[in-house]
Amino acid sequence: xxxxxxxxxxxxxxxxxxxxxxxxxxxxxxxxxxxxxxxxxxxxxxxxxxxxxxxxxxxxxxxxxxxxxxxxxxxxxxxxxxxxxxxxxxxxxxxxxxxxxxxxxxxxxxxxxxxxxxxxxxxxxxxxxxxxxxxxxxxxxxxxxxxxxxxxxxxxxxxxxxxxxxxxxxxxxxxxxxxxxxxxxxxxxxxxxxxxxx
Amino acid sequence: xxxxxxxxxxxxxxxxxxxxxxxxxxxxxxxxxxxxxxxxxxxxxxxxxxxxxxxxxxxxxxxxxxxxxxxxxxxxxxxxxxxxxxxxxxxxxxxxxxxxxxxxxxxxxxxxxxxxxxxxxxxxxxxxxxxxxxxxxxxxxxxxxxxxxxxxxxxxxxxxxxxxxxxxxxxxxx
Lengths: 198, 174
What we know:
The complex is a heterodimer.
Chain A: E1 5-7, E2 11-17, E3 23-26, E4 29-31, E5 40-44, E6 52-54, E7 60-63, E8 80-88, E9 100-107, E10 115-118, E11 125-130, H1 133-136, E12 151-156, E13 164-167, E14 178-180, E15 184-186, E16 189-196
Parallel strand pairs in A: 2-9
Antiparallel strand pairs in A: 1-4, 3-7, 5-8, 6-7, 8-9, 10-12, 12-16, 14-16, 15-16
Chain B: E1 12-19, E2 24-33, E3 40-41, E4 46-52, E5 59-63, E6 67-68, H1 73-76, E7 78-82, H2 89-94, E8 95-97, E9 102-105, E10 117-129, E11 136-148, H3 157-173
Parallel strand pairs in B: 4-11
Antiparallel strand pairs in B: 1-2, 3-6, 5-9, 7-10, 8-9, 10-11
């Protein structure tokens, strides 16, 4: 099977608020065929995109250095739509077969950000786990000492609480042996553990 | 106990994690570290080898090769030894099994004086212990060695005469 560099979703929509910080959403592509630990660089493929840049190694869409803050944005220019492409670190480097389309909306409602990841849960996590450990400790979240404690955290002001979903980028992969526990709420903070499904 | 992850089947996972409402997306890359959970295996559990009588010198009779599904090289390395608990003493003194699975002998077999067949047992094992104990994962293999006679006695006159008569008789009948 030939495996391509693909975005996990073709289009990404995100709303920023006056209370948002300067880093917004993370665009995620996946390279199953990579020989360099799956490392990918991300680039904006549309010319003259105002306000926004992409962090090359993480895919995080953020405010450009020459943009002072969110309050300085011209609301009339929104929504802002642009293309992102990804490239692996192979020789020669391969680019994603299709670009991802990112659309940024602006909400001037003045309210808090409805949801955001906490405690670095927006970063791509790389962990090594023992093949057999979870037979001995079946309810333990998957974790690696000093790297990841097995939980993801987010903050949400929404009244609707939906489960955390764990998926593979490959649509044919339906029997994934990992899942997320139903989020535990503590005020507006939520925690969900990634576990091995039996 | 059952586990749904098996490094021998898939040792890398890329997952993306999403909260649908409100929308959030993140990802995690998981590498499964192999544990020594797979024993050495062989397609067959016994075989018959032959050794010619009257041959001498330290010589190789054959080699067995087991397969271990573990993906970590230190766990899929298989070594071999003669199982002296299952093999009788006389046989144990006549055959050697080297760690690489080769079977050797230094014995000159004379069928008339020695026995015509030998049964030895070889244990294939991992050098590293099993993931959840101090024991090694092993597999026992049965090897039968039969001594093949070499026809080094000239026929006697009597047998030669008898043989020629038979041929003649056969020709007449035809």
